[in-house]
Amino acid sequence: MLILSWGQILALLLLFVRTAIVGLANSSCSGSPLSAQDCAALSSLSLHGHITFATATSPASSSDFGRIHRRLPRSILYPSSVRDIASLVRAVHDTSSPLRIAARGAGHSVAGQAQAGDGVVIEMGSLRGIKVSEGKPGEQPYVEAMGGELWIDVVRESLKYGLAPRSLTDYLFLSVGGTLSNAGVSGQAFRYGPQISNVLELEVVTGNGEIVRCSPVDHADLFFAVLGGLGQFGIITKAKINLERAPQKVKWIRALYSDFKAFTRDQELLIARPKDSPNSFDYVEGSVIVNNNHPSNEYKPIPFHGQTLNASLIPPSAGPVLYCLELTKNYDEDESATIDETVSSLLAPLGHVPSLVFSKDASYFEFLNRVHDGEIRLRKKGLWDVPHPWMNLLVPKSKIEEFDALVFREILRKGINGPLLVYPLDKMKWDSRTSVVMPDENIFYLVGMLRYATPSGVPSVNSLVDQNKEILRVCKSAGIHLKQYIPQLSSEEEWREHYGSSWSLFLRRKLAYDPKAILAPGQNIFAPSSSTLKLSSAL
Ligand code: FAD
After folding, report:
1. How confident is the model at residue 58 (pLDDT cuts 50, 70, 90)?
2. Could you identify which of 7, 384, 450, 462 might form a hypothetical disulfide with 419, taking C-beta atoms 3.0 to 4.6 angstroms apart as the criterion?
3. Predicted local confidence at residue 300, as pLDDT
């Protein structure tokens, strides 16, 4: 007689429940628009997580923060292990399936980059895990985070150990894999480079369905391909990111300029100061605001809560726009008595309007999570889940004044209905082996046009998209050789131009790691039947 232990009975029960779940997926697949072959392939996957086929009930997977593009996938995978992701990719790779696969992090793209029309979306957020390692004395601390984890949670977990990532984005409700697929920049990038310059190791599922751990010394080509690779070479399932000691507090400063030359001169001066210099700041950004004191206007974001901006102090010579330098100086509680004096002396030689400086003290977490307050405010007004025709550009330093004249003071002189960021970055802090492309000069400016369309529909989304195109056209004819950051391009020709001399490397890497062009179809780089890929693979 067969006698089963309690453990064996439990194992059998679990097996039964799992088979029942897979069976459920099978039956729901039969009504989906998948081909019989794809239906059979996806249904027979042995998963720790689950896969669904009733996509209309998961609108989030077909949409993004941009709310302009919307493509329905045929299936959605909620992985519970890296193997789930590898099994899916391998199933598509090993058959002649036309399905394409998009990893979706937080879905904060603005142009459908994380969508897979008629394909499979992998909801990366269902695979969680963050582990901080303080390191032995003298060793670099680091954090290991799954690709779908949000930076806000990475920060929260790291701060429990008095540590924090060195380079972050302004907004932290973005996924680790999503920002590492672009670059991840903010006001700390001048010192530490973008987030992709702060990665020690990755775990990746390639377009061939292989799980590979890679680093600057192990499978280095894949490591650098994936960083800034727009999801084209592999799905980041885990990232090991370096950490540094977190300060307890920051002095957070905003200083207003009426003169663009003085503004950029000071920004460039500040980013050139070494970390250990006593006169360095820890975060340097900037923005453009409309010079108009209409009650609904843009002076508002400059003073901190409880402070006011006296518009009569703005010099009469100021043009249609003003410039705001935003800085922080980190400090600990025991420096509280001297921090004001320190900051005053650092600000004294700068060229802002002397009386138009605002500052406040904040905890490090409050500062890092600063955009979330704005999100809460906009959500209350119904202005968060609206279309976002954003555009981000990298403009070479030698052309930023011309850009100011043509774009900030002309095309955008009435504002953009949202933050208009402008701050310099230092190419020396970017690893040239990654997939990101930058302008040719060592210093270039990030220009972020973070606009939102109002629910009234005026101006229309289309007119804002057209204005973005006009900016690109005007810059091109003025000979301003800029690059798009988080590019939105729609043909292979445009991508070829974007990558310029790096195109052949990009192509070689695509052939090595995703030769069937399965991954990240929403970037619109390679059509499934891309003749370039076919031709290149035949060579
Ligand atoms: P998704 O939109 O989910 O995906 C983006 C792309 O990456 C897609 O092609 C997707 O397929 C791919 N992808 C997603 N996860 C993975 C993965 N694990 N492995 C491989 N590929 C993957 N950017 C900055 O640099 N600095 C900022 O300060 C900044 N602030 C922002 C503020 C807001 C409010 C928003 C909406 C965006 C901001 N961004 C900023 C842009 C942001 O970095 C990118 O849009 C980023 O892609 C968003 O991450 P996500 O997780 O939402 O990516």
Report:
1. low
2. 450
3. 74
- Taking the centre of ligand 1 as the mean of its atom positions, its distance from the CA of residue 108, in whole angstroms, is 5
Nearest in space to 98 (alpha carbons), one of 524, 538, 469, 521: 521
- Give the relative orientation of helices 531-538 and 503-513 as an angle to the nearest 10 degrees: 80
Instruction: Return the closest-CA partner of residue 227 out of 195, 254, 257.
Output: 195
pLDDT score, position 10: 52
Residue with tokens 């007689």: 1
Provide the CB-side half-sphere exposure for 391 (13 A, CA).
19
Concerning whether 144 is annotated as a catalytic residue, the answer is: no
Angle at 401 between CA 395 and CA 403, to 5 degrees: 50
As beta bridge partners, residue 202 has 214, 239
The full set of domains in the chain, from first to last, is: 130-245 (3.30.465.10), 249-484 (3.40.462.10)
| Nearest CA-CA partner of 444 in 419, 468, 427 | 427
Q: What is the pTM of this model?
A: 0.94
Question: Is-catalytic flag, 440?
Answer: no
Answer whether 129's CB lies under 8 Å from 149's CB. yes
φ and ψ of 176, to 5 deg: -60, -50
Whether 66 lines ligand 1, by a CB cut-off of 6 Å, is no
Q: Which residues of 98-113 are buried (b: 16+ CB within 10 A; e: fewer)?
A: ebbbbbbbbbbbbbbb
331 Cα: distance to centroid of ligand 1 (angstroms):
30
Query: CA 340, 342, 346: angle at the middle one, nearest 5?
Result: 115
Structure tokens at 420: 């208009």
